[in-house]
Amino acid sequence: MTKKSNPKVKAAAFSICGAFTLAAIKLVVAFFSGSMAVMASAIDSLLDILMSGVNFMAIRHAEQPPDQSHPFGHGKYETLATLFQALVISGSGGWIIYESIVRLSQNNALENIDQGIGVLAFSAIVSWFIASYLSKVAKETDSSALEADSLHFRMDIYSNLGLMAGLLMVRWFNISWLDPALSILVASYILHEALQLIKRSLTDILDHELPDEIQQQVHQLISNHSGPLAGYHGLRTRRAGSLKIMDFHLEVCKDMSVAEAHALADSLEKKIEKEIPGANVIIHIEPCPVEDCPGVENCEIGKSRVPRRFQEH
């Protein structure tokens, strides 16, 4: 698959175009209306452009095949992009809170509120389409960078709707402090979500094990695999972008030839990689520790098709 036709690269490019369009419209309206709510949303869209651009470059690098310097591939470019997005989102949230507090102290009146309401409504609709598309591709490709980008656009939806409600209240009841007050609430939500992104990206960078459901899926695939498997142990897992790296020790009958044991391990690797998208599996073969081996044909352990043990080491 070429980079041009890669769905992850296409989604990242689409995100840049959408963010650029929204930012341009919001900046114009914010300048004429003086609304801190619209300005906050405009700044957020400018950051969307930056982060979507980083996503685009990171995904292009992450999709490169393994080489001599990067034998496990380049998947952690995506993780770094996710961390970068989270840090930028945190900074934008802090800036919005600061500017909103300044506006509260100055109690500035708003002009052209109707324009602000209109652009926020339009922005919420466009952000919904972008977020839905990014979320769809993120799930299909298991991309953490696209998932983070999708989350940011979903945050735009909620923030735009909330800020639009605030401007409506200002218009109907002339409560000028409500605009910056709601901006502070939205920024606080943004900071909360950013912390979740930071936590997830650090988890991948520090090679935290894959979720329990994936490890259980691996266990079931080994248990149900046809062949004289005596057991397995030492399952280790980690993530590098969309790549799920795992290795374990597979116990086989000591009477099996090297070729037979290799063929068994190879078929199991292919089965796991087929059932778990993005899996990269390495199996180390070990002889069954049972001292009185009855042979492959008479092995009750192998016939049970259930690995004898599941240990960490």
TrEMBL record:
Subcellular location as annotated: Cell membrane
SUPFAM superfamilies recorded: Cation efflux protein cytoplasmic domain-like (SSF160240), Cation efflux protein transmembrane domain-like (SSF161111)
Pfam family, one: Cation_efflux
Residues annotated as domain Cation efflux protein cytoplasmic: 210-288
Membrane topology value: Multi-pass membrane protein
One Gene Ontology term from the biological process aspect of the record: intracellular zinc ion homeostasis
GO cellular component: plasma membrane
Domain of life per record: Bacteria
Transmembrane parts of this sequence: 12-32, 80-97, 117-136
Chief place where the protein resides: membrane
Keywords from the named record: Cell membrane, Membrane, Transmembrane, Transmembrane helix, Transport
InterPro entries the record matches: Cation_efflux, Cation_efflux_CTD, Cation_efflux_CTD_sf, Cation_efflux_TM, Cation_efflux_TMD_sf, CDF_Transporter
Keyword Metal-binding among record annotations: no
Keyword Amino-acid biosynthesis among record annotations: no
Residue span, Cation efflux protein transmembrane domain: 14-206
GO MF annotation terms: cadmium ion transmembrane transporter activity; ferrous iron transmembrane transporter activity; zinc efflux antiporter activity
Family designation: Belongs to the cation diffusion facilitator (CDF) transporter (TC 2.A.4) family.
The protein's name: Cation diffusion facilitator family transporter
Lineage: Bacteria, Pseudomonadati, Thermodesulfobacteriota, Desulfuromonadia, Desulfuromonadales
